[in-house]
Every structure is written in C-alpha cells, then in structure tokens.
Amino acid sequence: MFRHVPNIITGSRLVLAAAFFVLLSFYQYEGRGDPTLMICAFVIYLAAVVSDFLDGYLARKWHVEGAFGRVVDPFADKILVLGSFIFFAGKNFIIPEVEGHGPHSHMVVKTITGVAPGMVILLLGRELLVTSLRGLSESAGQSFGAVWAGKFKMGFQSGTILIILVYITFRATLLEHQWELPVRILRDVGIWGTIVITLYSGLTYVQKAVSLFRQHGERTPA
C-alpha cells in the first residue's frame, strides 16, 4: 500500500510547480501587484520543498525506490528552480527607479528580484551540461550518481528562492520599517551564493566525468 506514496508525492510536486508558475505569471509589481499572490506562491513553494524531502525519505525508509522517482524527482526539482529564476528575471518583476539627483538623475529599470537573465543562462547551462555528461557516462555503462555539491546546490537554491519571495511580498513593509536594505543584501548574497555553488557543483561533475572516462579508456583494450 505504501509503495506508491512517494511517487504520488513526487508527482504532486509537478502540480505544485504548475500552480506556483500560474501565480507568478499573474503577478506584476507595477500592476497586478497583490501581495496575496506572492504569499500563496511562497506557501506553495515551501510545500514543494517539503515534498522534495518527504518523498525521498519515505522511499528510502520503505525501500521502494524506483525508476519513476529517479526520473521525475530531479525533473521536478529542475523545473521548480529553473522556472522560478526564469520568471524572476522576466518582465513581471521589473521595477523603475530613479538614480542620481537633480539634473543628473535618470530612470533605470531593474528587477525587484535581483535576478538578471545572464544568471539564468549560467544555471541552465550547468544543468544541460551535467545532464549531457550523465547521459554519456551511463550510455558507456558508468554510474554517474549525484555528488554532495549537487545536493547542497538544490537546498541553497530553494532557500534563495524563498528569500526572494519574502523580499518581493513584503518590500513595502520592509521599506517602512527600514529593513529593506538588510533583506536586500541577504537576497543578493543568496543569489550570488547560488551562482557560485552552481558553478562549483558543475565543475565537480565535470571532474567526475573526466575521471570516469579515463578509467573506462584504461579498461578498454587497444
């Protein structure tokens, strides 16, 4: 009876991801900027993070790991993380600001999330590279399991997304109570930390792939 529970939880994370992206698509900071949308998005993403821990824990506890979980679980994780950062770098979170004073002032456009399109390219590039390396390795009969840096990366990325959601939702309140700058700094530390950890984890996978390919080449008769 318990066999299908982890798979159901994993599948439900895709449903949560769809609901999360619908809320992000309806939100606009200048326009449809209802904080209720972002509060709901925060709760849904938090539920998705909990489900990510829960399905793996139950699958290991009940010894029911299967092909469905090995495929869908990382797929759901990547959809949630990459989709979130893609939205955060998009037009729904653009905020106009005035820089400078007096005659030297000028209008600039920024993302309230702090996420730039170039950052998303780095995150996406890392995932595509690791997926390609895993496919090549497993097609050659080599195991290419996750490394600790990759697992830590997912947790750090999820924490950063939650911080960004809090900053967006309560920015007006933070400005009112003069907490905007500390939270913005925390947001930026999370974003840049995500970039560094993502690149580092990608490098560890490249090193692992090179080592596996060298071992395979040494075992292959001339």
* Count of individual domains: 1
- Which second-level CATH architecture applies? Up-down Bundle
Assign the structural class, choosing from mainly alpha, mainly beta, alpha/beta, alpha+beta, or little secondary structure.
Answer: mainly alpha
Our count of helices gives 7
Largest sheet: 2 strands, antiparallel
CATH topology: Four Helix Bundle (Hemerythrin (Met), subunit A)
Order of helices and strands: HHHEEHHHH
Q: Which regions contain 5 or more consecutive residues with pLDDT less than 50?
A: none
Gyration radius over CA: 20 Å
Q: What is the tally of beta strands?
A: 2
Model description:
The structure is a single chain. Helix 3 crosses helix 5 (about 150-170) and helix 5 runs antiparallel to helix 7 (about 180-220). A hairpin with a 6-residue loop joins strand 1 and strand 2. This protein is mainly α and about 220 residues long. About 75% of the residues lie in helices and about 5% in strands. It has helices at about 5-25, 35-60, 65-90, 115-140, 150-170, 170-175, 180-220, and strands spanning about 95-100, 105-110. The chain has a single domain, classed as Four Helix Bundle (Hemerythrin (Met), subunit A). It has a two-stranded antiparallel sheet. It starts with a helix and ends with a helix.
